[in-house]
Amino acid sequence: SVCEGGELFTWGQNTHGQLGVQSQTTLTPKPQLVERLKGIPLAQIAAGGAHSTAVSLSGAVYSWGKNSFGQLGLGDTKDRGCPSYVGALEHWKTVFISCGADHTAVLSKEGLVCTFGAGGSGQLGHNSTQNELLPRVVAELWGARVSRIACGRWEVPMTCLLRQHTLVYVPSLDKFYFFGSGDERQLEDEKKPNQLIPLPINSPVNTGKSCQSNDHCRSIQSIFNPICYNFNFVNVFTHFTQNSHLNGIATLEDKEVDAWISKSKRWTNIKKNIRLIFSSEACINGSFLDKRDKHFKTSKEVSGVDVSEVKRFYEKISKNQTVYQEV
């Protein structure tokens, strides 16, 4: 869970270090602060079977936890007990990430998809069943401009088990693409061959709407599990993607700053807002990022912060000494 002030807290099972708190404890019932990510303005978090990932507002990706299949994207199979920077995704312009049971999919701002980790069921989409230790672009989706991705991980209602697969949505074609395996529990003679490359689901699925008929629902759900009836594929896809979204950490907006200066809001509210943002390194960093995608070039050498924007902000609030002093 990420607080409005930008701090990330984790709790639960920690058998592979998936909580990111560098602890040997296998179970943590109370929320613990992930110190390694303190000060980084997080845009999104995602949890897999026993690994976790986070994406910053400037597209930096961090991963930790179980890594036996390379699902952390770090080039090896060693577990990590605290967040590690995924250097292979530097400047990839990551805007969304999804974790499966043992694999990971990443979406760039340009709509490119790369996957890594377990590939035994074809869930990486590389026309093979090999594991990938480093992020690899799904070549079959090149130029498709994907807008949404989801990795199977959860057991969902109606006894459907969706684990070793990946789903993507291409808005220009209004099509979902699927690769991997739908249900591990089917009998051998009932199993369909694994889908090794992304192929469209040939059905008139309309995003945001329910299935138009029971027959239509059954045609979609049969890809995953023939015993799941009245299965709403769109709702499950929405659950996958929304589950790892954040409401957003608190950052500065021009309209809000104007309200501070003009005192058009109650001072107690202004004071609360100022203290929330300026007591958090993450919120400050997220408030002054370079515009026009320049912040995606953030690295050890490039801060990604627009210093001229910082100066402009302080010049603006200096018009109101009460606000200035509070900041």
TrEMBL record:
<protein>
    <submittedName>
        <fullName>HERC5 ligase</fullName>
    </submittedName>
</protein>
<dbReference type="InterPro" id="IPR000408">
    <property type="entry name" value="Reg_chr_condens"/>
</dbReference>
<feature type="repeat" description="RCC1">
    <location>
        <begin position="59"/>
        <end position="110"/>
    </location>
</feature>
<feature type="repeat" description="RCC1">
    <location>
        <begin position="6"/>
        <end position="58"/>
    </location>
</feature>
<keyword id="KW-0436">Ligase</keyword>
<feature type="repeat" description="RCC1">
    <location>
        <begin position="111"/>
        <end position="152"/>
    </location>
</feature>
<dbReference type="InterPro" id="IPR009091">
    <property type="entry name" value="RCC1/BLIP-II"/>
</dbReference>
<dbReference type="InterPro" id="IPR051625">
    <property type="entry name" value="Signaling_Regulatory_Domain"/>
</dbReference>
<dbReference type="Pfam" id="PF00415">
    <property type="entry name" value="RCC1"/>
</dbReference>
<dbReference type="GO" id="GO:0016874">
    <property type="term" value="F:ligase activity"/>
</dbReference>
<keyword id="KW-0677">Repeat</keyword>
